[in-house]
Amino acid sequence: MTAHFSIQPPPIAKLGDTLAQVSTPALLIELDAFEHNIARMAEMAKLHGVALRPHAKAHKSSVIAQKQITAGAIGICCQKLSEAYPFAAAGISDIYISNEFIGPAKIAMAIELARHVKLSLCVDHIAQIEALGLAASAAGVMITVLVEVDIGQARCGVARMEGLATLVDCIAQHSALRFGGLQAFHGGIQHLATWDLRRTSAAASAEKVAAYAQFLSARGVACPVITGSGTGTAEFDVASGVFTEIQPGSYIFMDAHYGANEWNGSAMPRHSLFIATTIMSTAKDDLAVCDVGLKGVAIDSGLPILKPGQNDELKFVRANDEHGVLKIIDNAGAFSRDRLGEQVLLIPGHCDPTANLYDQYVCIRNDKVEDMWDIDARGLSQ
Ligand SMILES: Cc1ncc(COP(=O)(O)O)c(C=O)c1O
């Protein structure tokens, strides 16, 4: 007969622990840099009179969303309807789903969310509008709908003026729907390596959005909101005179992919997101193996890098499921066996999918655990 008993792994850290005591792999937030990033983006948006609606898909944590709102954000973006639930439950009252969805199960979630929060949604097809309009009317809720226009991303969004007009007219026919404006995000230009290339590309994108808005204006339709932008172009988009709202996400963390961009002065966010990992094997002379692999770090935008200034002679060269291989890069000789058990801090290549792999952020200040925040929308991707 099988014995049943209650057994659970211990917490990865406790408040007041030193960084060295944190059980690895763990996702860390360095609070000084994180707070700097939150404040800087809020100030920049405020200075230009543009609303800040940060993208919560980057962090998936209602604690962080509350901090962004306290700093001046008007609400948040989510990318998926289910992702919005923990934020709504935590009291975030203004949520925009900046992504298309289709089907009765998704409509049902939209209606349920609309009963609890000020909800706005994004469409690019008449079928999405018809189904939503009927459901909203039957439920007695009012939903704001934005139409996505393609400004170069070649993904979702209408690419022709007539297509935009058809959708706006369709929204107007539904008494439970209100046309909210335009969704215009160009992810492809966020990581252009030079500052000047991003600046000119952002200007070209803003011109495209402006043309859509002017087309609607000529038909007597106002766009109350023109929303888009990301961490890489926010500094240009706030000053464009076109965007009324920006939706950057990664700026709070500054992953290694964004760190490789050329930045100009104070617009550069600081690295605040790290993975604490431990060297768990030194059996070979020329490498060390740490305890984080694909299950703890996303590598779609490049391998993680080591935190500069620490272990600069090592390079992360390979991730397997639970192993990270670190190579000696300066031909300094054999890797010391004594370094077994040493903690190494990594900066993930891409923050969004990395955060989605963890249950909690371990928040660090002065090498001490100051707080632990749940990643409560983790895995909610429906
Ligand atoms: C629609 C939308 N808005 C905003 C963002 C935020 O971009 P970033 O995390 O690069 O700031 C993204 C990211 O992919 C996005 O898809």
Characterization of the model:
The chain has 382 residues and is an alpha/beta fold. It has two domains: 19-27 and 269-374, Lyase, Ornithine Decarboxylase, Chain A, domain 1, CATH 2.40.37; 31-251, Alanine racemase (TIM Barrel, Alpha-Beta Barrel), CATH 3.20.20. 29% of the residues lie in helices and 22% in strands. The protein has helices at residues 31-47, 62-70, 81-89, 104-116, 126-139, 161-172, 195-218, 234-237, 256-259, 351-355, and strands spanning 26-30, 51-52, 76-78, 94-97, 118-123, 143-148, 177-184, 225-228, 245-246, 273-281, 287-290, 305-306, 314-319, 324-328, 343-347, 360-365, 368-374. Strands 1, 10, 11, 12, 13, 14, 15, 16 and 17 form a nine-stranded mixed β-sheet that branches. Helix 7 (195-218) links the parallel strand 7 (177-184) and strand 8 (225-228). Helix 3 runs parallel beside helix 4 (104-116) and helix 5 packs parallel to helix 6. The chain starts with 25 loop residues before the first strand and ends in an 8-residue tail after the last strand. The model has no long low-confidence stretch (mean pLDDT 96). Bound molecules: pyridoxal-5'-phosphate. Pyridoxal-5'-phosphate (PLP) binds at residues 55, 58, 98, 185, 187, 190, 230-231, 247-251.
CATH class descriptor of the largest domain: Alpha Beta
Query: Which fold name corresponds to the CATH topology of the largest domain?
Result: TIM Barrel
As for the number of domains, it is 2
Task: Classify the secondary structure makeup into a structural class.
Answer: alpha/beta
Q: Which CATH architecture of the largest domain would you pick?
A: Alpha-Beta Barrel
Number of strands: 17
